[in-house]
Structures are given as C-alpha cells and as structure tokens.
Amino acid sequence: MKNICESAEVFEAYAIIDCCRYMIKDILKNLYKSRSPIEAMIDEVSGYDDAQTEKAKLLTIDLLEQIIEAKKTIEADYTEDTNILEELKGLEFLPDVQEATQLKIQE
Fold first, then answer.
1. Where are the domains of the chain?
2. Interval 32-51: pLDDT, tens
3. How many C-beta atoms lie closer than 10 Å to residue 51's C-beta?
4. pTM over 0.85
C-alpha cells in the first residue's frame, strides 16, 4: 500500500476513500433514523420509503465503486469492498419502486 504523502494522486485516492465512507455512513444514518408513527405511515403509503431506499442503494453502489478504484490506485486490498458491492447489486426491488426512483433522480 502506498504512503499518503507519496504523490498528489495517492493523497487524492485516500481523500476519496474517506469521503465516500463518510457519505455511506451518512446515508445509513438517514435511512435508519427514527420517525414518528404518522411519518412512517405516510411514507409507506406514498411509496417514499421504497424510493428513498432504492436511491440510497444506487448512491451507495456508486460510492463503493469509487472506493474500489481509489484502493486500486493506492494498491490496497479491496476484496471486502467488492464483496459488499456484489451483494448490494444483488438486492432486488419492485419495478414500480425503480420507476419512482428514476423520477426522483431526474428531478
């Protein structure tokens, strides 16, 4: 594994890894934050929960791909990240949820 001060490219790769991990933690925190029963019911009925979950999944996949590329740059082991990425890509959601997410992303 390369030293963080070896070059600007290596420093940037370490920064990308740190930033992406922070963003993934933030996504998970927002997904699992507690809500009032009425908020949860409204989200469930409107499909907002499913759309947010799918959006979080897509964003997390993108962030994991960036982490893997950065780890390749610094010659670090990225097998665990690859396993998580494959598992996440294997999760399936209902087709109407995917359509709703596409609409949310386009907005």
1. 8-106
2. 888 888 988 888 888 888 88
3. 22
4. no
